[in-house]
User: Which sequence fits this backbone?
């Protein structure tokens, strides 16, 4: 049933779009009557619409001025509108998208494009900003997460986006609860919000740390670098964007988590001291393409406190390659130390950091470095073929149920092949390390005084499985000597049978129910 004009007035729509129903130009009508005249002078054409990018009907709106109640927009023609959010923050996704686009263009990034509608997403849930860097065809993405979601959904989206774009930078809105997961991953998270200022809304950015409140600054105080967004509270180092040291708030021994694309703590890079006679460029804050092009022009004098002489383009490129090579070697050395203990997403992040170093170089890397990089890519490919932690947990649930049923019925050990026939055909082909992980998850909650369910997984010929000792070690159980492993395992199987027999004696199963006795009259 159509709504009357008076009923429409009560909706108090505070935002609209200007120009056309599908425009992305948001307008905000202040509630105070004193600001109404200034607002109308700013938009003399009064072409306001309930924009489709706001989730609205696309029909025209009129700005209503009141002195006894809040000023607001109202539909010119009465009718049904399914727009859900009409408050002052209902157009913040448009303000954020336009502000980010203008900010990136000001920094000389190219092919900047904003997307407000994504497949599978509703309007006002996410904002995507695509761009390219000077001299590179690769497209990068800034994803602004405004809607709430689960950690699983966010991780799935993060993996999908990293597979499509050269690099992904996450920003989180005020209502998104996902910033904590990003903070756990890299030590900080970039937050974004809008606040009213006169007749418009401005975008502020803040950095969320685990131990400090968010300090909001204008977007103009930040800049996009090759290693991520740099905001007050963060600094660019040879290891990427990291948290600034705060001697007044943190002890000297505080370990700052690296915010590099590797998402792991990288060792410091030792930079050789500058020789007085060698003409070297001052350390740039960021090897940004636009800065590189400006600095490489012949005759351009680089500002420096020591007034170093200007470098030729060849010298500048050699210095650029030296710095990128130092960081690349540092990342590879760190991978050689801890790479085997990283999860797949952390390894992929480290490889993206290495790729960024290669992209920043003017000349290709040497054959030795290429072989080391190729080895880690091959390692990542092998890890990608193995189950994730979530899949390990799902396998463990199935195996725990099957072994529990076997313990309660016959206590007969099963082989991995038998488990595969009963549960999932992929179980027998799992990597030995993954089989250990599955069995550890199976018995993680087993009481210390009870035998492990993993004891019911045996090798062919009713022999102890070679992985049983590793499972015992992971669960802090006594590990038998190599010659005593068979007898130790057989005793655990007998304990399962004793438990089964003792549980059977606790119950009496009768063929028919006993009839209740009747008292003689």
Assistant:
């Amino acid at each position: 049933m159509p709504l009357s004009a008076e009923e429409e007035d009560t909706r108090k729509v505070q935002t609209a779009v200007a120009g056309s129903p599908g425009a992305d130009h948001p307008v905000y009508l202040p509630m105070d009557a004193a600001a109404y005249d200034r607002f109308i002078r700013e938009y003399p054409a009064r072409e306001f619409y309930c924009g489709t990018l706001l989730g609205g009907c696309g029909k025209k709106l009129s700005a209503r001025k009141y002195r006894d109640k809040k000023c607001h927009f109202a539909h010119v023609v009465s009718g049904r509108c399914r727009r859900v959010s009409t408050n002052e923050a209902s157009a913040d996704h448009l303000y954020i998208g336009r502000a980010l686009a203008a900010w990136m263009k000001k920094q000389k990034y190219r092919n900047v494009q904003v997307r407000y509608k994504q497949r599978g997403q509703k309007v006002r849930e996410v904002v995507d900003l695509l761009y390219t860097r000077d001299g590179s065809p690769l497209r990068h993405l800034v994803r602004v997460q405004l809607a709430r979601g689960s950690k699983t959904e966010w991780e799935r989206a993060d993996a999908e986006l990293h597979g499509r774009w050269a690099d992904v930078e996450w920003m989180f809105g005020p209502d998104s609860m996902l910033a904590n997961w990003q903070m756990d991953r890299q030590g900080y998270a970039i937050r974004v919000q809008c606040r009213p200022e006169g007749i418009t809304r401005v975008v502020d950015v803040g950095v969320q740390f685990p131990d400090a409140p968010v300090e909001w600054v204008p977007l103009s105080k930040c800049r996009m670098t090759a290693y991520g967004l740099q905001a007050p509270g963060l600094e660019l180092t040879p290891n990427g964007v990291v948290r600034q040291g705060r001697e007044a708030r943190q002890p000297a021994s505080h370990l700052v988590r690296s915010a590099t694309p590797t998402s792991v703590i990288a060792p410091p890079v030792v930079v050789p001291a500058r020789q007085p006679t060698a003409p070297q460029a001052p350390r740039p804050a960021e090897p940004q393409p636009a800065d590189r092009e400006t600095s490489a022009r012949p005759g351009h004098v680089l500002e420096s406190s020591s007034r170093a002489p200007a470098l030729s383009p060849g010298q500048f490129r050699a210095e650029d390659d030296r710095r990128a090579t130092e960081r690349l070697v540092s990342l590879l050395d760190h991978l050689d130390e801890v790479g085997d203990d990283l999860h797949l997403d952390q390894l992929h992040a480290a490889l993206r950091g290495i790729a960024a170093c290669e992209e920043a170089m003017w000349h290709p890397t040497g054959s030795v470095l290429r072989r080391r990089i190729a080895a880690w890519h091959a390692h990542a490919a092998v890890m990608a073929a193995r189950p994730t932690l979530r899949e390990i947990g799902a396998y463990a649930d199935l195996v725990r149920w099957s072994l529990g049923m076997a313990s309660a019925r016959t206590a007969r050990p099963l082989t991995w092949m038998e488990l595969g026939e009963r549960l999932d055909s992929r179980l027998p082909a799992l990597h030995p390390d993954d089989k250990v992980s599955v069995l550890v998850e199976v018995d993680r909650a087993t009481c210390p005084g009870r035998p492990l369910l993993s004891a019911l997984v045996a090798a062919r010929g009713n022999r102890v499985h070679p992985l049983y000792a590793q499972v015992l070690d992971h669960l802090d159980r006594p590990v038998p000597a190599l010659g005593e492993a068979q007898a130790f395992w057989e005793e655990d199987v007998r304990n399962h049978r004793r438990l089964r027999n003792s549980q059977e004696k606790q119950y009496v199963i009768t063929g028919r129910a006993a009839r209740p006795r009747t008292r003689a009259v």
User: Anything to note?
Assistant: Residues 1-9, 246-308, 505-521 have pLDDT under 50 and may be disordered. The longest helix spans residues 313-338.
